[in-house]
Amino acid sequence: MQATTMAIEPTLAILSGKGGTGKTLLSVNLASVAKEATYIDCDVEEPNGNLFFNPTQEFGKLVTVKKPVVDEALCDGCHKCVDFCAFNALALIGKRLMIFDEICHSCGGCIHVCPQKALSEQDRAVGEMSIGRSDSVRSISGSMNIGESSGVPIIEELLKHKGEDLTIIDAPPGSSCLVTESVRLADFCILIAEPTTFGAHNLAMVHELVSLLGKPYAVVLNKVMEGKNPAEEFCIKNNIPIIGRIPFDKKLGSLNSVGKIASREEKHYRELFASILSKALAKVNP
Ligand code: SF4
Ligand code: SF4
Fold first, then answer.
1. What average pLDDT is seen over the chain?
2. First and final C-alpha spacing in the chain
3. Residue 119's beta-bridge partner residues?
């Protein structure tokens, strides 16, 4: 008898040029209309996907990174580690070594160059992550501690828990290194944009990023109403496929503002988001 192998489902990343564009609205609804899905909230500076899913907690842990610590009894103030650190995370005040944890990138180099073996690594928490379940959605979320310079280690940890089912990644807004890390495993990117000149400008920014990363992509237009839509004009001018139009709709806005997932509330929203999901999946597997 032949063993059956489960196919790995695609990973879709949802991006926007700025916060408040409808990225989480689209992400949670796409995950909710799938038969089974994993939702990963990579917006670790402002995670709000779980406000919608309100999942039952299954797993949680601190996210730690390695940071150097100095044994002052061994350090002779030779300056080699300070000269080595490309991030200026080390300084010698007289013969006393100062380590600025928040800007240290945990490369470990200073430990290797120290001739006195005065430096060693210690785990330090930079945030936390959790996994929970809400109906057919497994929700993975993380948050960064206040004052940390980078959420990349937390995003790396979240992505380690990605399964083989359909995965929806709610990326951080903008086009920073956090976004690049969030879309690393994505098979397809969906860019969401508002119908304003500023919306078109933000769309151009994320469009440039996904083009540079060589990721296939399409656009969903949000808050669509009658009249001029600069974001749509940008898509037409640049030959970018539009796979969905979410109308400007007070009911949808009010459901969203109280943390309700529209596609779980009303059939026509379910059909709207199911249609967007099916068009995105058709682009991944034409
Ligand atoms: S681990 Fe790397 S980044 Fe951090 S202080 Fe040492 S050399 Fe600098
Ligand atoms: S390289 Fe080692 S001994 Fe030299 S200043 Fe740095 S910690 Fe001290």
1. 94
2. 31
3. 70
pLDDT digits (tens, 9 = 90+) for 52-99: 999 999 999 999 999 999 999 999 999 999 999 999 999 999 989 999
Confirm or reject: Cβ of 77 under 6 Å from ligand 2: yes
DSSP string across 113-134: H-TT--EEEEEEEEEEEEEEEE
Residue 81 CB less than 6 A away from ligand 2:
yes
From-to residues of CATH 3.40.50.300 in the chain: 11-64+127-284
Q: What is the pLDDT of residues 183-202, one digit of tens each?
A: 999 999 999 999 999 999 99
Q: Is the CB of 105 under 6 A from ligand 1?
A: yes
Q: Token pair of 109, please?
A: 């180099």
Instruction: Establish whether residue 30 lines the binding site of ligand 1, counting it when its CB lies within 6 angstroms of any ligand atom.
Output: no
Share of the chain above pLDDT 70, in %: 98
**Which H or E run contains 168?**
strand 167-170
Among the bound ligands, the one closest to the CA of 93: 2
* CATH number given to 11-64+127-284: 3.40.50.300
Q: Nearest residue CA, atom 1 of ligand 2?
A: 114
DSSP classification of residue 162? -
- Between 3.50.50.60, 3.90.650.10, 3.40.50.720, 3.30.70.20, what CATH number should domain 65-124 receive? 3.30.70.20
Question: Tell me: the pLDDT tens digits for 127-169?
Answer: 999 999 999 999 999 999 987 778 999 999 999 999 899 999 9
